[in-house]
Amino acid sequence: MASVIGFVQRIWDISRPIETPKSADAVRIGLLGASTTAPLSLITPAKSHPGVVIAAVAARDFKKAEAFAQKHNIAKIHRSYQNLIDDPSIDVIYNPLPNGLHFEWAMQALRAGKHVLLEKPSVSNAAEADTLFSFHAELRSPRPVLLEAFHYRFHPSWSGFLSFITASTIESARSWMSVPAGVLSSNDIRFQYDLAGGALMDPGTYLVSILRQVFGAEPEECLSAVATPMPQGRDQKIDQVMKASWRFPNGGIGSIEANLARSTWLGMPGLDLPSVVVKHKEVPVTDEVGSDKSQSHGMIHTVALYNWALPAIWHRIDIVDEHVTRDDEGKVLKRWTLKKTKKYYTWDELQEEGKTRVGSKSWTTYRHQLEQFINRIKGQRGSGVWVDEDDSIKQMEMIDGAYKKAGLPIRPTSTYG
Ligand SMILES: NC(=O)C1=CN([C@@H]2O[C@H](COP(=O)(O)OP(=O)(O)OC[C@H]3O[C@@H](n4cnc5c(N)ncnc54)[C@H](OP(=O)(O)O)[C@@H]3O)[C@@H](O)[C@H]2O)C=CC1
Ligand SMILES: O=C1OC[C@@H](O)[C@H](O)[C@H]1O
């Protein structure tokens, strides 16, 4: 009962954050597009941040921008993306445009000296990532801040999960995310190749990021990539589903399944919690059992995180240790399993020296991300979580590699120079 009350309370608190008065030096953010995601990923989180004002929005259609501004209490409307970027009263550009427009508008914003919060995937392919992030790296100090918005990494549940993983002994890691069938309309940006759509680009980009995080390394080889194309008559360059696997330097295998139209029995929409399961190789345990030289004691450590995408609403980390003792001929003497469950709604259990980790239970991944983004802009010490330039480039290299392996073209490079 207490857990149900906690769940309902968290949903209530997340959807109605306490609005804080804004400080005089608040960072002023402008939104590119009246996007579907902005209310969840930035507008609501900004309400509880005293140092952030959502100051302007630009949309291709003025009436749409007007309605969006009114609904979200945004004071200023621009008739074009360029006008927003050129607005001297704006400090930060939030870029949640279709993936295929990320590169152009991030470059434009950086060229205008604005900080950029850039939705994932950062761009369409590795060549664009290299150009964008190298351009950013070479900007003169004080450089604007550029962040690929891998929000899940900023929540304490992700750090808590990683704290149970020993990268060098991982045998396998599996991660998955899907969108239930029928949720996305047939003309959704995710189904358009020219806008850099596809399952690997959308849920898949998180899954690729998760494998890179878990192994703490880049893969040596893409072992398999199998795309389920869109139904006949639709764009065959779009992967509706992508299943792929990679071998990492420790010999472990990482695999993903990204699905833009998950269905189950009789075509009913399917709902899976976005999750990751990491299984380690058996490692020897030295303890009182192991000290008997005629016996050996081994353990397989498996860690799973359920709901890494919206962990503030609910998540669970399961840690399962399978123990086995064997005699000196390898015959199994005894097996037993120890299980525990952990949850990290706040940093309380994860405080480390030198890191400033703040937040409350009602902070979503997006709110935590915003905190760190603003810390960077203000030159303040934060939680230590960040996504750096090289990380974002390597991310796109892994995605390109999987598209090639699947026999699909990598997503098109922008003509913007
Ligand atoms: N962090 C997260 O949790 C989430 C991130 N995302 C990411 O955000 C981005 C946008 O996703 P989402 O908000 O769902 O997308 P939308 O379909 O809402 O598109 C976003 C905006 O793109 C603009 N746009 C510009 N050119 C085009 C075009 N040719 N066709 C369609 N739209 C265009 C529209 O702006 P205008 O108003 O000017 O017409 C639209 O408002 C993606 O990169 C996605 O991966 C998406 C969902 C969640
Ligand atoms: O968080 C998300 O969930 C669903 C996806 O389609 C979306 O783009 C992604 O960011």
UniProtKB/TrEMBL annotation:
Q: What is its EC number?
A: 1.1.1.179
Going by the record, the broad EC class of this enzyme is oxidoreductase
Q: Recite the UniProt keywords alphabetically.
A: Oxidoreductase
- Which reaction equation describes what this protein catalyses? D-xylose + NADP(+) = D-xylono-1,5-lactone + NADPH + H(+)
Which parts of the sequence belong to the GFO/IDH/MocA-like oxidoreductase domain? 178-261
Molecular function GO terms recorded = D-xylose 1-dehydrogenase (NADP+) activity; nucleotide binding
One Pfam family of this chain: GFO_IDH_MocA
Q: Does the keyword Oxidoreductase apply?
A: yes
Asked whether the UniProt record includes Oxidoreductase among its keywords, one would answer yes
InterPro entries registered for this protein in UniProt = Gfo/Idh/MocA-like_OxRdtase_N, Gfo/Idh/MocA_domain, GFO_IDH_MocA-like_dom, NAD(P)-bd_dom_sf
Give start and end of each Gfo/Idh/MocA-like oxidoreductase N-terminal domain.
28-134
Q: What family, per the record?
A: Belongs to the Gfo/Idh/MocA family.
Name the UniProt record assigns to this protein: D-xylose 1-dehydrogenase (NADP(+), D-xylono-1,5-lactone-forming)
